[in-house]
Amino acid sequence: MRIYLMTDLEGVAGVRNFEEWTGPGKPYYALAQKLLTREVNAAIDGFFAGGTEFVLVEDGHGPGATDITRLDPRVELLRGWADRWPLGLEEGDFDFLACVGQHAMSRTPLSNMAHTQGCSYLELSVNGNAIGEFGQIAMCATELGVRTIFAAGELAFADEAAALVPAIETVWGKRGNKPGRGDECTEEQLAELLVD
Known about the structure:
Elements: E1 2-7, H1 18-21, H2 29-49, E2 54-59, E3 76-79, E4 96-102, E5 125-126, E6 129-130, H3 133-143, E7 147-154, H4 155-164, E8 169-174, H5 187-195
Parallel strand pairs: 1-2, 1-4, 2-3, 4-7, 7-8
Antiparallel strand pairs: 5-6
């Protein structure tokens, strides 16, 4: 078995907001990288225990978030956005897709840091169905014959993944507590809400 493991940062347990946690120079960025890498390594342990032979970890957080000094040495890491989507996921190279550290798509109530690509997206849809970043990579994987089997992140994301992919295994480590969807706000107001 060969697994393509997409990561992100905002869905990681303990990562609280954009302002302090999600980019270089922010006070808790190093801690966020450490927390993400621990979640990624836990998934990797499970995959290898289940018979996986190869795992490619795609660091899907824009500025990079995987701590390479702590990453399980059995895997390969792909960092940085490739020239084309879907970021190194190739037909015939992988059997399964998994995601760790993922957040819910924009306009999701009770999400800690809901967004799609950035806070300026209100909704991204395909054939009238709203999808987020997870939906995009899962759709690409399906087109390439790669089955999506695992999704870990916040509770709102786990619910999103379960609704989108039948029989997927999900794990959540945190949950949001703001009921609004964000579309009732301006972009500036939404950014303020996501910081709190």
